[in-house]
Each structure stands twice: as structure tokens, then as C-alpha cells.
Amino acid sequence: MASLLGYCRAGYEADLANELSARAAQLQCYGYPKFVRGQGYVEFDCYNPADADKLGQRLAVADTVFARQLVVVTSTLDDLPREDRLSPVLQEIIDHDDSAMVNGLLLVEHADTDEGKELAKFCRKFAVVLRQGLRKGNCLTYKEKPQGRGVHVFFTQFDRCLVGYSYPDCRSAYANGIYRLKFPSAAPSRSTLKLEEAILTMLTPAQQQQVFREGGRAVDLGACPGGWTYQLVHRQMYVEAIDNGLIDEKLMASGLVEHFAADGFTYRPQFGRVDLLVCDMIEQPDRVARLMGDWLVNRWAEHAIFNLKLPMKKRYETVTQAMADLTARLQKLDDSFVIRLRHLYHDRDEITVSILRE
Questions:
Q1: Which entry of 145, 250, 309, 314 is annotated as an active-site residue?
Q2: Whether residue 245 is found in the same domain as residue 164
Q3: Which end of the chain has fewer CB atoms within 10 angstroms, the N or the C?
Q4: What SS3 string covers 41-80?
Q5: pLDDT in tens, 283-326
Q6: Which residues are annotated as a binding site for S-adenosyl-L-methionine?
Q7: Same domain, 296 and 196
């Protein structure tokens, strides 16, 4: 039975499983998810083997919430011999090669868990010899071609792996589906990485230039101590920072930040509107979604990037409902919007939403 493999943050397997089931049904692909809580990945077995490839071509990682990577699985290899793991893996890839597609990438990966990280060194070494074997067998280009099909080997144990492939327009471009960032020493909190990752991975370069233009105005709700404000100031935007707590002194000294000790739910922009609203307040997700809707519907903000804090259970359902209500309000407007939702690597129990007015 062919399947679709999805990577996720450990503990979010049920949420990814629910999302894959729902998204597959929308594409008229049916099956069932398999996972163990905490393992960091989900397998979605398709009743029709052809549906796994269909999902691989039509379901992009960027259009999902909880998936870090999506791979069409062609085979699962158990009890790999310790003395020669390479031969059976190499043979499986060759047997399922598609002459109509050029294999331009090889990714040997593992789950983002403590158990998975024990495999990291082995995966790196295995990738070297597997890459050589694939190139020798003309199953992989000698130079990496990101526009080609990706060959994936996902180890769950030293003697067990899933073998498959991904399509260039649908996979994540990053190893293990993780976009890693270096913490900027001048930022006042690590929360700054959440907004930076959102900007760099959820917006195209053209959208970044449009939304984060130098001299633009933004509002940061729940700004203290200024992690998200830092990203705006770094891009030379004027910021109205809203929080009853204090904002980092260096940010205030930039001359680009005005601090208002006010309630984020009742605050309104000083000049009637701003280019961008950002929000990382710790509040109920439906309440934050309604507030974001107020700002966008009333055009107090052109665009918005915000986090929705997630409950302990039924996280996918909670997100779906909150965003359905918000989307319904936006659809009544004459404007059109680009909406993306992602559980980013630097997020924890929250998802990041970007809504850009076109």
C-alpha cells in the first residue's frame, strides 16, 4: 500500500493526521493515518496506491499547517542488515525510479526527536555512499538540481527506513523540513525568531518588499519586550508598540518606536491606519482571530501577521474553526487576500498566520 509520509513537531502527530485526512479527502484521495504519539511523523496510507503520488503532486508543504515535509513512500525496509544497509536501499530506489523525472536531490533524514537525533551522524555518512551509488547507477544528477525530483530515505531506526520521493513544487527546500535561524544578539527575546521565520518562509521576496518597506508603519500588539518589534525596526519601519510592560531600551533609542501602555484589544492606530499589524498576544485563538478580522475589515491595517495560541487538544479543529470565521468575514470584502497558516519550527504551542491584502 502506497503512502504519504509527513514530518511534524513531536507531539503534533494527531494534528497532522487530522489535517492530512481532511486535505486528502478534499482531493478525493482516501486512506487512514498511522502514527505513535511523540514520534515526529505520520504515515497516511492510501487505499488507492495511485493516490499517494497524486497527493505528492498536489499537496504542497507550504499550503499545510502542521507538515514540515511531505514524501511519497514507495517502500518500507525493515531489518536492514548491519553489514550492508546500502544495497537494499539502493535497489529500492532504482526499482522505483521514473525515467520521466530527473532525480536532482538526495535527502537522508530522520525525525526531529531525541531518538531521531541519535541517527543524525549515521544519516549524514549514509547519504555520502548512497549518493555515490545513485550517481553511478544514473539515478541522480551529478550536480544538485532543486527543480528535479527529490529522493528521500527516512530512517526511523538504524535498521529501518522509508524510501520515497517528492516533487519540487510541493516539498520543503530545507533539511528535515526545518528552517534554522541564528538568534540576533541585539534582539531582546527569542520570540523574534518566530516573526523572522514567518517573513522569510511564508512571504515571497516580492511580498516581503511590499509589506516591509522602509518608512512604513506597523503596530505590534503584545510587544513587550520587543522581539517582534525588533524585526520591524531592523527593516526600518516605524512601530507603535502596544503593551503594559516595558520595551527594550535599545529599540526605544532607535527613534522608530513609540510605546503605548494600552490594551491590545481596544487600541487603535495613531494615524487611523498602518501598513502592517503583528500580534503575539497570549490569548484564546478565536478571540485573537476576531481582533485581526476587525483590523483588516476596518482597514486599520493593510496586512497582518499573527500567532494563534493552541489548546492542548483538538488543535487542528480549533485552528480550522477560528480561521473559517475570519476568512468568512474577509470574503465579504471587495479585496482579495493571500492567507497562509504554518506551524513554524520556532513556534511552540501556536501557529503563525499571514494575511496579505492584494
A1: 309
A2: no
A3: C
A4: EEEEEECCHHHHHHHHHHCCHHHCCCCCEEEEEEEEECCC
A5: 999 999 999 999 999 999 999 999 999 998 899 999 999 999 99
A6: 191, 224-227, 243, 263, 280
A7: yes
